Amino acid sequence: MNFLDAEFVRDFVRMANDGWEQGWHERNGGNLSYRVKEKEVEQVLENFVKKEWQPIGTSVPKLAGEYFLVTGSGKYFRNVAIKTEDSICMIELDAKGENYRIVWGLKNGGKPTSELPSHLMNHEVKMLSSNGKYRVIYHAHPANIIALTFVMPLNDAVFTRELWEMATECPVVFPAGVGVVPWMVPGGRKIAVATSKLMERYDVAVWAHHGLFAAGEDFDATFGLMHTVEKSAEILVKVLSMQQGKRQTIKPEEFRDLAVAFGVKLPEEFLFEKLVVKKD
Ligand code: 13P
Ligand code: ZN
User: Fold this and answer.
1) Do the Cβ atoms of 106 and 89 come closer than 8 Å?
2) Which residue's C-alpha comes closest to atom 4 of ligand 1?
3) End of a domain among 80, 114, 148?
4) pLDDT higher than 80, residue 124
C-alpha cells in the first residue's frame, strides 16, 4: 500500500493539521509521535528505504524493535498535510533501544524531532503502565497553559486543582491530574527523564514557560486531552484577567460527587480545602 494511504498515516497527518489550526504550532513548535502497530508496519513495509543507524540520545530497551511515526526536527506542523513526506518520518529502533534509523520520509533530509528522547521515554513508561494500549505522545505550545506558568506556582497540586475547577468535565478527562516540569533546557535526556517520571502518574505534563506534553491510547484521545487542558487554561486566564480570585467555584465535595457519578478516582491530595475570598 502507498505509505500516505495507510489509515494511521492519514490520522497522524490530520491530528498535526488540527494542532496547527488551533494555533499551537508556531514555526516548528511542537512534535508528535505514534507507536505503530505490527499490522500497520506490514501494510507499508514495501515503501521502506532504510537509512543508517543514529543514536537516540537515551536508552529505551523496552521499545527495542518498535516502529514510530514522528514529526521532523525543524519541520512545520503547517506543512505536514501538504508536504507530508518532507515533514515527517517513520523510524525503527534497534535491538537495544539505543539507536534509530529512518525507514521512510524526510525525503529532503533532516532528522526526527529534537524531543525524540522525551517522546520515546514517555512511550516506554506509558506502554508498560497501559499494557501496550498507549500509542500517542504529543507536544504542543498552547498559549494559555504557557501563560499560567508565569503566574501560578509550578506545583502539580495547584495546576491540577485550578484546571479541574475551570470546566466540569476536566476531572473526568484527566482524573490523575497534571504534572509540572520546572524550566529546563529542551531537547535532551535530562528533560526527558523528568517528564517520563511524571508520566508514570499523569497523562499530561506541563513544561514551564514552554508547553505541554500529552499521552493517550489513540489520536482522538490525545488531541482531545491537549484541547481540554488548553481550553481550561484559557478559561482560567480569562477569569484571572477579569478580577482577583473567583466569586464561586466547584468545591471539594462536589468533585467527590462528580467522581462517583462518572466512575473516576480523584486523588484526595488534590481536593484540599481552599480559602474562598467572599466579595459581597
Ligand atoms: P523540533 O522542531 O525539533 O520538533 O522542536 C520543536 C519543539 O517544540 C522543541 O521543544
Ligand atoms: Zn517545544
Assistant:
1) yes
2) 113
3) 114
4) yes
Question: Using one digit for the tens of pLDDT, what is the confidence trace for 32-79?
Answer: 999 999 999 999 999 999 999 999 999 999 999 999 999 999 999 999
Domain of residue 34 covers 1-114
* Three-state secondary structure call for residue 136: strand
- 166 assigned to some structural domain: yes
What phi-psi label fits residue 138: left (phi over 0), alpha (psi between -120 and 50 degrees) or beta? beta
Q: How far apart are CA 23 and CA 212, in angstroms?
A: 14
Question: Ligand 1 center to residue 116 CA distance, Å?
Answer: 9
* Residue 112 alpha carbon to ligand 2 centre in Å: 14
Asked if residue 138 lies in contact with residue 222, where contact means CB atoms within 8 angstroms, the answer is yes
147 occurs within a structural domain: yes
Q: Which residues form ligand 1's pocket by a CB distance below 6 Å?
A: 28-31, 71, 73-74, 113-115, 139, 186
* pTM for this prediction: 0.97
From 115, 210, 213, mutation site for ligand 1 pocket: most ligand atoms within 8 A of C-beta: 115
Q: Based on the domain organization, do 250 and 172 belong to the same domain?
A: yes
Mutate which of 89, 113, 183 for ligand 1? The one with the most ligand atoms within 8 Å of its CB, which is: 113
Query: What per-residue confidence (pLDDT) applies to 274?
Result: 85
Q: What is the mean pLDDT of residues 207-225?
A: 98
Per the structure, how many domains does the chain have? 2
**Parallel, antiparallel or unpaired: strands 31-35 and 211-216:** unpaired
167 and 84 part of one domain:
no
Whichever domain contains 265, its CATH number is 3.40.225.10
